[in-house]
Amino acid sequence: MSPQSSHRQKSWQRTLLLALALWLTFIYVRHDELGWNGNTRFCLTYAIVEQGTVRIDDYWQRPDLGTRDVATIGGHYYCDKIIGTSLLGVPALATVRFLERWLPQPLLPPWERWLVIVFSVALTAAAAAALFHRLALRFLGEVGFSTLFIEGAAALATFLTFCGTMLLLFSGVYMPYLPALCFLLAAFWLIERYDFVPVAAWPLSKGKPYLYSFGVGGLIGLAVLCEYLAAWPGLLLLIYFLWRVRSWKVAVPAVPAVGLPLVPFAVYCYTIFGRLSVPYEYELEPIFREAMSR
């Protein structure tokens, strides 16, 4: 292995160790009371895994999942949030349910929900930290600092960002901010990752530039599927991507790729409400129905 390859491998190992340490920090605290917002998302996850439906009729009034932040139509109740975070927890809850078959008795609900968060939101939070660290290494390296300073400064910046801000709190609850951040940083990292290759000069016949562009757009779409507001930084990333590749042909596939991950939510909304979003007039709580409609 060449010295450069060895250094790159060790650098990635340090990134993964930092992400692991942060993940263990994120999951150290178990939040038993998740609030209406998180419970609503959990209701949809449970309904999908246990009943194979998006109706949360049997969940929204359960003592451990109680919420009134829901939409109701036709005598049934539904999650009124964009569904990315709920879908993210489906594999984790399905795995927990599978493993519970070999346990003497099912896990208590708080521990069950904690495990879902550990392997969904907290895991994406750790991935976001790893991506942040790689980007910090990249940008500090371009400034021209010494290798030792770059490694220390990037690790410190990552630690302070993810443990010295509200990100630390949101990494341990069933909320959409960290998953959305993870996908946005992944798109940003992908744009920067191939900066040393003039993308516009790649042979278009081989399809690699289109696949690269499609990946950037798809990651931005996944971020929006978790959180509506991710659309704003996502739009800026698309503009930045176009500026970097300097080629409309390469950049065009990113636009439809953004919409592809949003198809499940569009189908969800149109099937239930007849629209492509959740109308606030179907909110159960009058205060939500009136205030949020403005």
Written overview of the protein:
With 294 residues, this protein is mostly helical. Helix content is 64%, strand content 3%. It contains 15 helices and two strands. Strands 1-2 form a two-stranded antiparallel ribbon. Helix 9 runs antiparallel to helix 10 (208-226).
Based on CA atoms alone, the radius of gyration comes out at: 21 Å
Helix content: 55-70%
From the spread of the alpha carbons, the general shape counts as: globular
**Global mean pLDDT:** 89
Main sheet properties: 2 strands, antiparallel
Q: What percent strand?
A: under 5%
List the total number of helices.
15
Spatial order of the strands forming the largest sheet: 1-2
- Helix/sheet category: mainly alpha
Uncertain parts: none
How many distinct beta strands? 2
Question: Distance between termini?
Answer: 61 Å
What is the N-to-C succession of helices and strands? HHEEHHHHHHHHHHHHH
In short:
By secondary structure, the protein is an all-alpha fold. It is built from 15 helices and 2 strands. It is 64% helix and 3% strand.
Keywords:
294 residues; mainly alpha; two-stranded antiparallel ribbon; 3% strand; globular
Topology at a glance:
Elements: H1 3-26, H2 35-51, E1 70-73, E2 76-79, H3 84-88, H4 90-99, H5 109-118, H6 121-143, H7 147-163, H8 167-170, H9 177-193, H10 208-226, H11 231-245, H12 248-251, H13 254-259, H14 263-273, H15 286-291
Antiparallel strand pairs: 1-2
